[in-house]
């Protein structure tokens, strides 16, 4: 075998394994999300991870970062161009249309799963990352905009994050109002052509609104003087935005209106918003969304108003960790380590473990497997992090009893009969 063939194969850059030490954090977050969606009356939708490339090109927009340079696109064996989904909205619309979920109905959907973008990997930015998103269809009033924002706010509240995030809000107006504004903006940028960086010059013809998004400090002053979309809204969009703000005010949700918030995807109209934090450095947006009334029609369906958002799970978990907001008890481990001391005891221990699992369905019990010396068995019990070891040796077998050993606190060990064991554990283990 050649040297290179023997080299260990590693994961793809920017695509992470989620190790057992980390997965309890994800489970904690995911459980909160699932419960919340249930409470707000949202139904889960799961779509394939791969779609036809045209779906994303047509929905996200040809001249966006995602479609221009971030998609994982490849030819299937039969020559079809396929793409690993870079986001969830397009797939959701595709599935909802395909299965008739939009015809004379309203929908409140949510999803969760991996997304793929070929970006430069760094803290909070990966090539495979995960999002939770919601998408609603068939509601044109600002009440649903408020509802999805309130849903996200409640998630922050329940995670202890609300005081660490800021809601930024803007309105992009109707497609027509935006087109008129676009002309004014291009005229302004033309006057300041010397200040524009290369990226912006390129966008001047393709997607000038995105220039407003630029973080280039050399352009900051020029951008501050640019005409504002907010001053060019159509009347209906203005009313919609005013009503949304009134609803958020009534619900006690703080926000800042950020007239430069335009979002990177083409399909948004009217409401756009982002939840941002300063605790994660430059990857500070943890949730982003808005209204996209034109997308269903753009993809060949009947005009259907739509609102949604997506949050980045990695960034939220990073934030929870940074702020130490994940409760100790969510971090897993087991309650009891059941430890047969020899092979004779193993068969009794197996049936005893099953009996306990039937009687105490919330008990987390790990059965010692794999034999070993007394010393190594005790070491494994300790490593399990369980507060209680249940020992089953020769003496215990003879008496149909067990010995309870308390591994984390200074407490006398206890001998109890096997018949009484589940009652005893019920008292000792809090949940
Ligand atoms: P950014 O400006 O940070 O690139 P975006 O506008 O491209 O974000 P969206 O497409 O709106 O992001 O996705 C919604 C959320 O998904 C983001 O706010 C972020 O939390 C998360 N996200 C997006 N791209 C990545 C990535 N490459 N790695 C990790 N999380 C991501
Ligand atoms: Mg991006």
What does this structure look like?
It is built from 16 helices and 16 strands. The protein is of the alpha+beta class and 431 residues long. An eight-stranded mixed beta sheet has the order 1-5-6-11-10-9-7-8. Strands 13-12-14-15-16 form a five-stranded mixed beta sheet, with helices on both faces. The mean pLDDT is 94. The two termini are 55 Å apart. Helix 2 (23-39) runs antiparallel to helix 6 (142-159). The protein is 38% helix and 20% strand.
Main beta sheet strand tally, sense and closure: 8 strands, mixed
The end-to-end distance, rounded to whole angstroms, is: 55 Å
Overall form: elongated
Q: Helix coverage percent of residues?
A: 25-40%
Give a short overview.
The chain is α+β, with helices and mostly antiparallel strands and 431 residues long.
Keywords:
alpha+beta; binds magnesium ion; 8-stranded mixed beta sheet
Helix and strand topology:
Layout: H1 3-6, H2 23-39, E1 43-44, E2 50-52, H3 53-60, H4 65-70, E3 72-75, E4 81-84, H5 89-98, E5 107-116, E6 128-137, H6 142-159, E7 166-171, H7 175-191, H8 198-206, H9 220-224, H10 235-250, E8 256-257, E9 269-276, E10 285-291, H11 295-298, E11 306-312, H12 313-322, E12 336-340, H13 343-359, E13 365-367, H14 374-383, E14 388-392, H15 394-399, E15 401-406, E16 414-417, H16 421-428
Parallel strand pairs: 1-5, 7-8, 12-13, 12-14
Antiparallel strand pairs: 2-4, 3-4, 5-6, 6-11, 7-9, 9-10, 10-11, 14-15, 15-16
Bound molecules: adenosine-5'-triphosphate and magnesium ion.
